[in-house]
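Q: What does the predicted 3D structure of Transcriptional regulator with HTH domain and aminotransferase domain look like?
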Amino acid sequence: MAGEVDRFQHGVALATVLGNWSTGDGPLYRKLADAVARAADDGSLVPGERLPAERELAKVLAVSRATVVAAYENLRERGVVDRRQGSGTRVNGARRVPRSDGRVRGGQGTAIVQRLIDGPGRLISLSCAADAGVPEVAAALRAVADHDITGLLDDPGYHPRGLPALREAVASHYTAVGLPTSAEQVLVTTGAHQALVLLAEVYLKGASAVAVEAPSWAPCLDIFRQHGVRLLPVGLDDEGIDVRALAGVLAEHNPALLYVMPTFHNPTGRLMSATRRRQVAELAARHGVAVIEDNAYAGSSLTADETSLPSPLAAYAPEQGEVLTVESLKGVWAGLRVGWVRGPAGIIERCARRKAMADLGSPLIEQAVAARLVPSLPELSRARSVVQREQFAVLESLLRSRLPEWTWTVPDGGSSMWVRLPEGHSADVYAQLALRHGVEVVPGSTMDPTGQHDGYFRIPYVRRPGELAELVARLASAWTELVRHGPHEDLPLRPVV
């Protein structure tokens, strides 16, 4: 029980659960108290759970200690917490809570997913790096309605492995980019996220560890955390995952999986070189470790011609290697929710069984639209890259003008930049102030458990120029407040007698 009740001793962990607690009207101490009470009511905080010390929570939330003291006292008066000298502040042990709050225990990506559930409201949320759909989606939908719908309606509608036409299209796409593929090696999924869920179910039963890049995208890491495995972070260099460090991790820990994002890594936007792909594939094969390459952001190049990009990492694997390639149509339109995994036919069959148990197969009309789009991916990628270069240029210009103290490296591609705050500043603290200025920031601590990127956060640039201008204006206002004034002083009014 000790591990469970001590989960939130550190302020960052509690801040993740509280989410957008500081938005809305009213004094900060009252909003903080209300957010903690809601978390206790819905089961996010369990009876007996110890809350962070006042100074610790004040530091992380960028408020004064007096604000936290007032919030805790308000919660004590409401019966939500107990406060005892030497024991700290704990959730009232007599409270009754739901059996489950639906959250991923130990997962720092939960708040990011929760934002998608709640909707952005008045906030500008940096948790989502997806643009509007391209016009070709509408054209493909009309073509399906005009030419394909009769055949689809004649079909019973259950294809757990995916619509045959789409599987053939994906196989042809990979063959064309240097990775020979047959339809039997392709499973269609409801987005890339489901592909990762299925692969985790196949590989992680009884497993103890997964090797991952540091940083990496928190919701993806949470998929592995749900299986109780230990994450083994490996840093990056200019060519991708650090192969020397990776060799040490594989030799010492023998993980069940290696998870990498070689084509426009999220959040750094880095492109793994062809040489590094070969090294990683050969190293993993030598140690008998399966590799998941997540290329959800493929087709969004900022610095290179799409035709000159390396083939998927699986193309460099030796015969005994086992590489699963995950991709989606996120860059075409995330709302289409079509993804896939390409791999050895036996693994694909095992994933298909699990998908059949989950949903009996993804919707066919969306797959039919995707089947018409996949052959055009090279042209769609080139057009999208032109637009994203313009969007990136706008954001970079705004940041240089309004926030010259911040630094970043121009990404090779993807849809966001990886920004570093000046030395000594925590992105966790800045994120709390940004919330009060109307921006939801995802700090680097959620993406790297080693602490090496606590001063970083991700800024997606796939927005219209006016939206980018408003975003940077809010970020700059929050930064000015942090630098000039520090934590916000917010005291409850007390009657004078």
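A (community wiki): The structure tokens above were generated from the sequence. The chain has a mean pLDDT of 89. The first strand starts at residue 81 and ends at 84.
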